[in-house]
Fold this protein.
Amino acid sequence: MTQAIPLRARPAAVGRDRALLAGGALAGPLFVGSVLVQGFTRDGFDFRRHPASVLSNGAPGWVQIATFLASGLLVLGAAAALGRRHTGARWLPRLLALYGVGLVLAGIFRADPADGFPAGTPSGPGQVSWHGGLHFLGAAVGFVALIVAAVAAARRGARRGERGWAAYSLASGICFGVAWVALIVRPAPLTMVGFGLAVAVAWAWVTATLWRVDHGRSV
Protein backbone atom coordinates (compact mmCIF):
# COMPACT_ATOMS: atom_id res chain seq x y z
CA MET A 1 0.00 0.00 0.00
CA THR A 2 1.33 3.42 -0.91
CA GLN A 3 1.78 5.64 2.12
CA ALA A 4 0.84 9.31 2.05
CA ILE A 5 3.82 11.62 1.91
CA PRO A 6 3.91 13.97 4.92
CA LEU A 7 3.48 17.65 4.17
CA ARG A 8 6.98 18.40 5.47
CA ALA A 9 8.43 16.08 2.82
CA ARG A 10 7.08 18.21 0.01
CA PRO A 11 8.91 21.53 0.32
CA ALA A 12 8.17 22.46 -3.30
CA ALA A 13 4.41 22.10 -2.75
CA VAL A 14 4.59 24.00 0.55
CA GLY A 15 6.59 26.78 -1.09
CA ARG A 16 4.11 26.99 -3.94
CA ASP A 17 1.16 27.28 -1.58
CA ARG A 18 2.89 29.94 0.50
CA ALA A 19 3.56 31.91 -2.68
CA LEU A 20 -0.11 31.61 -3.66
CA LEU A 21 -1.24 32.75 -0.22
CA ALA A 22 1.15 35.69 -0.37
CA GLY A 23 -0.18 36.59 -3.81
CA GLY A 24 -3.74 36.53 -2.51
CA ALA A 25 -2.73 38.74 0.42
CA LEU A 26 -1.25 41.25 -2.04
CA ALA A 27 -4.38 41.29 -4.21
CA GLY A 28 -6.09 43.82 -1.94
CA PRO A 29 -3.27 46.38 -1.88
CA LEU A 30 -2.91 45.93 -5.64
CA PHE A 31 -6.60 46.56 -6.26
CA VAL A 32 -7.01 49.48 -3.88
CA GLY A 33 -3.74 51.10 -4.94
CA SER A 34 -4.57 50.81 -8.62
CA VAL A 35 -8.02 52.33 -8.15
CA LEU A 36 -6.64 55.22 -6.11
CA VAL A 37 -3.96 56.05 -8.67
CA GLN A 38 -6.45 55.87 -11.54
CA GLY A 39 -9.13 57.79 -9.66
CA PHE A 40 -6.84 60.70 -8.89
CA THR A 41 -5.21 60.87 -12.33
CA ARG A 42 -7.98 60.22 -14.85
CA ASP A 43 -9.85 63.28 -16.09
CA GLY A 44 -13.49 63.44 -15.08
CA PHE A 45 -13.41 60.67 -12.49
CA ASP A 46 -14.90 61.58 -9.12
CA PHE A 47 -14.94 59.19 -6.15
CA ARG A 48 -18.14 60.92 -4.98
CA ARG A 49 -19.99 60.06 -8.20
CA HIS A 50 -18.33 57.10 -9.87
CA PRO A 51 -17.69 53.50 -8.79
CA ALA A 52 -14.30 51.99 -9.60
CA SER A 53 -15.92 49.78 -12.25
CA VAL A 54 -16.38 52.67 -14.70
CA LEU A 55 -12.61 53.06 -14.85
CA SER A 56 -12.70 50.12 -17.30
CA ASN A 57 -13.93 52.55 -19.97
CA GLY A 58 -11.91 54.81 -22.23
CA ALA A 59 -8.45 54.36 -23.69
CA PRO A 60 -6.74 53.71 -20.32
CA GLY A 61 -9.56 51.35 -19.31
CA TRP A 62 -7.31 48.36 -19.83
CA VAL A 63 -5.60 49.23 -16.53
CA GLN A 64 -8.75 48.65 -14.49
CA ILE A 65 -9.63 45.57 -16.53
CA ALA A 66 -6.18 44.17 -15.79
CA THR A 67 -6.64 45.11 -12.13
CA PHE A 68 -9.87 43.10 -11.91
CA LEU A 69 -8.33 40.11 -13.68
CA ALA A 70 -5.05 40.11 -11.77
CA SER A 71 -6.64 40.50 -8.34
CA GLY A 72 -9.24 37.85 -9.17
CA LEU A 73 -6.64 35.35 -10.33
CA LEU A 74 -4.52 36.01 -7.24
CA VAL A 75 -7.54 35.33 -5.01
CA LEU A 76 -8.31 32.15 -6.95
CA GLY A 77 -4.73 30.97 -6.47
CA ALA A 78 -4.94 31.67 -2.74
CA ALA A 79 -8.25 29.82 -2.53
CA ALA A 80 -6.66 26.78 -4.17
CA ALA A 81 -3.80 26.89 -1.65
CA LEU A 82 -6.30 27.21 1.21
CA GLY A 83 -8.08 24.10 -0.02
CA ARG A 84 -4.86 22.13 0.38
CA ARG A 85 -3.97 23.61 3.77
CA HIS A 86 -6.79 21.85 5.67
CA THR A 87 -7.46 24.90 7.85
CA GLY A 88 -10.61 23.32 9.29
CA ALA A 89 -12.94 25.57 7.34
CA ARG A 90 -13.92 23.91 4.08
CA TRP A 91 -16.25 26.76 3.22
CA LEU A 92 -13.54 29.44 3.15
CA PRO A 93 -11.66 28.26 0.02
CA ARG A 94 -14.97 27.89 -1.84
CA LEU A 95 -16.26 31.32 -0.85
CA LEU A 96 -12.98 33.02 -1.67
CA ALA A 97 -12.94 31.19 -5.01
CA LEU A 98 -16.39 32.63 -5.74
CA TYR A 99 -15.08 36.08 -4.86
CA GLY A 100 -12.17 35.57 -7.23
CA VAL A 101 -14.51 34.41 -9.99
CA GLY A 102 -16.63 37.52 -9.43
CA LEU A 103 -13.58 39.73 -9.87
CA VAL A 104 -12.54 37.94 -13.06
CA LEU A 105 -16.05 38.28 -14.48
CA ALA A 106 -16.04 41.97 -13.58
CA GLY A 107 -12.89 42.30 -15.66
CA ILE A 108 -14.15 40.30 -18.62
CA PHE A 109 -17.50 42.09 -18.81
CA ARG A 110 -16.95 45.83 -18.78
CA ALA A 111 -19.19 48.16 -16.79
CA ASP A 112 -21.04 50.82 -18.79
CA PRO A 113 -19.95 54.47 -18.88
CA ALA A 114 -22.02 56.54 -16.47
CA ASP A 115 -22.63 60.01 -15.11
CA GLY A 116 -20.19 61.93 -17.27
CA PHE A 117 -17.34 59.41 -17.23
CA PRO A 118 -15.45 59.03 -19.47
CA ALA A 119 -15.57 62.56 -20.85
CA GLY A 120 -18.51 63.01 -23.21
CA THR A 121 -20.77 60.53 -21.43
CA PRO A 122 -24.18 62.03 -20.60
CA SER A 123 -25.04 62.73 -16.97
CA GLY A 124 -27.08 60.15 -15.11
CA PRO A 125 -26.82 56.37 -14.78
CA GLY A 126 -27.44 55.66 -18.47
CA GLN A 127 -28.66 52.43 -19.99
CA VAL A 128 -27.29 49.05 -18.93
CA SER A 129 -25.87 46.91 -21.73
CA TRP A 130 -25.63 43.12 -21.71
CA HIS A 131 -21.97 43.25 -20.71
CA GLY A 132 -22.74 45.86 -18.05
CA GLY A 133 -25.44 43.61 -16.64
CA LEU A 134 -23.06 40.63 -16.54
CA HIS A 135 -20.44 42.84 -14.90
CA PHE A 136 -22.75 43.65 -12.01
CA LEU A 137 -23.98 40.06 -11.80
CA GLY A 138 -20.42 38.80 -11.44
CA ALA A 139 -19.66 41.50 -8.87
CA ALA A 140 -22.80 40.61 -6.91
CA VAL A 141 -21.80 36.94 -6.74
CA GLY A 142 -18.38 37.93 -5.45
CA PHE A 143 -19.76 40.44 -2.93
CA VAL A 144 -22.22 37.96 -1.44
CA ALA A 145 -19.52 35.29 -1.17
CA LEU A 146 -17.17 37.70 0.59
CA ILE A 147 -19.82 38.88 3.06
CA VAL A 148 -20.79 35.30 3.92
CA ALA A 149 -17.13 34.35 4.34
CA ALA A 150 -16.48 37.20 6.79
CA VAL A 151 -19.60 36.50 8.85
CA ALA A 152 -18.88 32.75 8.92
CA ALA A 153 -15.30 33.46 10.01
CA ALA A 154 -16.68 35.59 12.83
CA ARG A 155 -18.91 32.76 14.01
CA ARG A 156 -16.09 30.25 13.85
CA GLY A 157 -13.74 32.60 15.68
CA ALA A 158 -16.29 33.14 18.44
CA ARG A 159 -16.61 29.39 18.92
CA ARG A 160 -12.85 29.14 19.40
CA GLY A 161 -12.87 31.99 21.89
CA GLU A 162 -10.99 34.39 19.58
CA ARG A 163 -13.17 37.38 20.34
CA GLY A 164 -10.93 39.93 18.67
CA TRP A 165 -10.79 38.07 15.37
CA ALA A 166 -14.51 37.30 15.54
CA ALA A 167 -15.40 40.95 16.13
CA TYR A 168 -13.10 42.14 13.34
CA SER A 169 -14.50 39.63 10.85
CA LEU A 170 -18.11 40.43 11.75
CA ALA A 171 -17.51 44.18 11.55
CA SER A 172 -15.83 43.79 8.14
CA GLY A 173 -18.68 41.72 6.72
CA ILE A 174 -21.39 44.01 8.10
CA CYS A 175 -19.57 47.15 6.97
CA PHE A 176 -19.25 45.89 3.43
CA GLY A 177 -22.80 44.53 3.25
CA VAL A 178 -24.43 47.68 4.66
CA ALA A 179 -22.39 49.96 2.39
CA TRP A 180 -23.33 47.89 -0.68
CA VAL A 181 -27.05 47.90 0.15
CA ALA A 182 -26.95 51.62 0.93
CA LEU A 183 -25.39 52.34 -2.45
CA ILE A 184 -28.08 50.33 -4.23
CA VAL A 185 -30.95 51.90 -2.28
CA ARG A 186 -29.73 55.49 -2.34
CA PRO A 187 -26.85 56.25 -4.73
CA ALA A 188 -25.42 59.55 -3.55
CA PRO A 189 -21.97 61.07 -2.90
CA LEU A 190 -21.99 59.92 0.74
CA THR A 191 -22.95 56.32 -0.05
CA MET A 192 -20.56 56.21 -3.02
CA VAL A 193 -17.61 57.26 -0.87
CA GLY A 194 -18.79 54.96 1.92
CA PHE A 195 -18.88 52.01 -0.44
CA GLY A 196 -15.39 52.77 -1.68
CA LEU A 197 -14.10 52.76 1.89
CA ALA A 198 -16.00 49.52 2.60
CA VAL A 199 -14.29 47.88 -0.37
CA ALA A 200 -10.93 48.76 1.20
CA VAL A 201 -12.13 47.32 4.54
CA ALA A 202 -13.21 44.08 2.86
CA TRP A 203 -9.91 43.72 1.04
CA ALA A 204 -8.06 44.30 4.33
CA TRP A 205 -10.00 41.39 5.84
CA VAL A 206 -9.02 39.14 2.93
CA THR A 207 -5.37 40.09 3.42
CA ALA A 208 -5.55 39.48 7.18
CA THR A 209 -7.27 36.11 6.67
CA LEU A 210 -4.64 34.84 4.25
CA TRP A 211 -1.85 36.14 6.48
CA ARG A 212 -3.29 34.17 9.40
CA VAL A 213 -3.41 30.98 7.38
CA ASP A 214 0.12 31.49 6.07
CA HIS A 215 1.33 31.82 9.67
CA GLY A 216 -0.43 28.68 10.86
CA ARG A 217 -3.50 30.28 12.40
CA SER A 218 -6.98 28.83 12.08
CA VAL A 219 -9.78 30.60 10.25
Q: What stands out?
A: The first helix runs from residue 11 to 41. Residues 37 and 54 are 14 Å apart (CA to CA). The chain has a mean pLDDT of 89. The helical segments are 11-41, 61-85, 91-108, 130-159, 163-185, 189-214.
